[in-house]
Each structure stands twice: as structure tokens, then as C-alpha cells.
Amino acid sequence: MAANYWASTQRRYWQFSRETLAETRQKLEDDDRALVQQYPLPDRRLLNHFFREHLAKLGKRMTVKQQALATAQVYLRRFYSKVEIRRTNPYLVLATALYLACKMEECPQHIRVVVSEARQLWPDFIVSDVSKLGECEFYLISEMNSQLIIHHPYRTLQDLQNTLSMAQDDTSLAWSIINDHYMTDLPLLYPPHVIAVTAIFLALTLKPTQAGLQAAASTAAALSSATPMLKDQSGSVNGVLNTQQKKVQNLVSWLAEGEIDIKAAVECSQEIISLYDILEQYTEKTCKEQIGRFVKARGLDK
């Protein structure tokens, strides 16, 4: 087991450039062009939101901890970077990813329990035969080359909480942003510590201007005004500082003294802003219908 991210398989094999990831996905679609055209799907981020909501429902039934849910989402990102989604039953893959993640995060669930709970949630797509989930587990492990250890941003957030004088509300909001980033490609593009710093930056910068991060317009405006401050390594802020501004200044000063890739943090911020923007278009019904269409038509639910 890799003791840290820098020596991990995550860094060596599962961190891509945007160009490489786009090329990989394009090749998957090109290899199944007829299938892709026959069964159009929503934006990938909307699908990821759908998957997260259903993973959360399944996890809640089994009292699964958040880190296992996060690991399952990373497994989904990895698996579907190598396998065309229309060739799978996503509901079975969801259940399998969570089953495998629970093993890896040391909160194992019995396979019969997972199948039973998944069948109650998705009776039209999950059969009672536990061997189907077992087969799918080997499929996931094979496509991920048995590289199953995931390093998450949560630890960095906890480590920086005191260093940056974050209040509990700040930490909770940053934690929530980290949860949300799993709906994007960021886990496949950037190190977990960059994600954590991005979440802290957004939590400290945007909190005074809005009750939550779902208002995309307000978020984009706040980021636009905050980004130059992040790039200014002098960390100087004119005028009287309120408590929240002091926290932001502490973060900027800490960034100036460290080796965090500020450009990467800004790119991550923009990606998360874009996520909140497109989630305004989300409807569960659309995702469910479009996934169900190819699963049923191709007999993938058998």
C-alpha cells in the first residue's frame, strides 16, 4: 500500500492531462459510434450527479461512510474512462463500485446485503443473482488494473483546518465542495491536495456572498473578483480586514510560501463553478429514462 500520494498508483497511472482524457473518451465513442448515436446521453456531469444521488441512496441503506462513497465515485470515473457506458448496466456497476469501495475503505458489506438493497432500490435493473455482482467486481478490478487505493482531499482539509484558522462552518463548506468535485473529472486530473486547497479557497471566498454554492451566477462573479487575489503572492489586502478577509489573506500568504500550483487551483475552481452552472439543467427523470433505454434495449439488466 502506498503510504502517500506521491508514491501511489493514483499519481503514476490515474492522473491524466485534459487532452489525454478527452482523447481516450473520444476513442471509446469512435469505437462504438453506432451505439453512441443510437442512445444519446446527457452531459457527463449530469450523469455523474445522477450516479452520486443513487450511490448515496444505496449507501444510506447500509450506513456506508462518506469516504467509501467517494472512493466508489472515483472507481466509476476510472472504469468509464476505459469502458463505454452503453455497454454496461450502470446500476450494477454502481452497486459493484460501492461494494468494492467498502472493502477497500475497511467497512465491508456482505455481497448478499448489497444485492438485496440494490434490488430494492432498482428492481427493474438488478437481479437477485449475487454472481452477477461478483462478475462485475472482477470486471472493475481488471479494468483498473487492481489499482484500488484512493487518496482523497479530506485529509489535507483536516490538516489545514488549524493552520488556516478555519471555523467549523468554513470546514463544513469546504468538505461539501470536495464531495461535489467527484461529479467532475477533477479526481482524474489533479492531486488531492490541490483539490483540498481549491475547496478551502472557494469556501472562504464565496461564503460571505451567498448562502450556498448552487447560485452559479453569484459564484462566478465571486470567483472573478477573488482569483486575482489568489494570483497575488504578496498577499496584501488594503483597508480594514474583517474576520473572513483575514482568513483569505492567511490562505493567500500560505500559498505564496508553499509549492501549491496556483494555476491548477484556479483551473479547479473554474471547473467546480462550471459544475454548479450545469447542474441547473439537471433532471433525474431525463437521466433515468436515457440510461434505462439502452439498458433495457440491449438486455443488460438480465
What's the β-strand tally? Answer: 0
H/E element order? HHHHHHHHHHHHHHHH
Average of pLDDT: 88
Q: Tell me roughly what share of residues is in helical segments.
A: 55-70%
- Computed structural class: mainly alpha
Uncertain spans: 208-227, 233-240
**End-to-end separation:** 36 Å
Structure annotation, total helices: 16
> Cα-atom Rg, whole angstroms?
20 Å
Question: What is the 3D shape?
Answer: globular
What is the beta-strand fraction? under 5%
Largest sheet features: none
Protein traits:
mainly alpha, single chain, 302 residues, 16 helices, 67% helix
How would you describe this structure to a colleague?
- With 302 residues, the chain is mainly alpha-helical.
- The protein has 16 helices and no strands.
- It has helices at residues 9-13, 18-31, 33-38, 44-61, 66-79, 90-104, 111-121, 130-143, 154-163, 168-181, 186-189, 192-206, 216-231, 243-257, 262-278, 284-297.
- Helix 9 runs antiparallel to helix 10 and helix 12 (192-206) runs antiparallel to helix 14 (243-257).
- The two termini are 36 Å apart.
- The relative contact order is 0.13.
- Residues 208-227 and 233-240 have low confidence and may be disordered.
What is this structure's SSE topology?
Layout: H1 9-13, H2 18-31, H3 33-38, H4 44-61, H5 66-79, H6 90-104, H7 111-121, H8 130-143, H9 154-163, H10 168-181, H11 186-189, H12 192-206, H13 216-231, H14 243-257, H15 262-278, H16 284-297
Helix pairs in contact: 4-6, 5-6, 6-7, 6-8, 9-10, 10-12, 12-14, 12-15, 13-15
